[in-house]
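Lab notebook: predicted structure, single chain.

Context: the supervisor wants predicted structures on file for every construct in the current expression panel, including those that have not yet been purified. This is the next one on the list. No modifications to the sequence; it matches the entry in the shared construct table.
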Amino acid sequence: MPDHAHNQRVRSWSLAGSGPVGVRTRGTTAHNRLRKADRWLVAQPQVQALLRAAVVHEHRSPRAVDVGYGASHTTTVEWARWLRTITPDVEVVGLEIDPDRVLPEREGVRFALGGFELAGMRADIIRAFNVLRQYDVNEVPAAWEMMCSRLRPGGIVIEGTCDEIGRRATWVCLDASGPQTLTLAWDPADVAQPSDIAERLPKALIHCNTPGHRIHAVLRQMDDAWDRAAHLAVFGPRVRWRGALDIFYDATNISAGTPLGPAREHTPGQYRRLTPRRRLSDNSLTLPWSAVAD
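Prediction complete. Output recorded below exactly as produced.
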């Protein structure tokens, strides 16, 4: 039985009689730790349309809620800056279950006491990073369900994990119907092979990286494609990964959809490319959840 002595429940200041849902976590963070997920999020056409539609068609400010921002407000404020590149009208709220971490408003970001229940709020976008990794795996579905239940129509949840300075990151994108995609992103020079990202898989998958599970098979296929693209290593790890992606796509037969949409028809041996083809500073891969979940 895991020891959660460091994660004691706290008294509610926001929901009378019930309180925030969740447990205290260590709360460590750092500048730019979540930049990979932030870049990915604001590049999604569906996210851009979601936030702009709230302003143009619904005549309201879209709301983004950061669940469990930790001991520092840094990554929440950085997230707000990214989201404001889509629309300056976005309202960003940071929630913490530890009352001692709740801060006064700063840089246009509001902070409050709350957990997975969102302190009674509804949101267009919810982010929960490096939170569930400190929970038991059997607690993940309930946390996902609770956050998704607080989404406005068309909203999404980004739940994931990364290393201490954000060089390796993975996240699940969920909507009201459940998990849709898994994204893996890493600094090209930080890993020897793509499967090194496995140490930062989301809680829902990290214990499944063993033979017989889909995520294990996908990581092995990524490594195989990487090895077959070795002739491109002279051009650097970014170019090599772009070549490896083409090999991976051609060798893999996975039904895929868009990050926020249903599965679509595909040609055998190929699937819709969820990973952007534009040149990025990160190596990354976005897969449909059906490709990695058992």
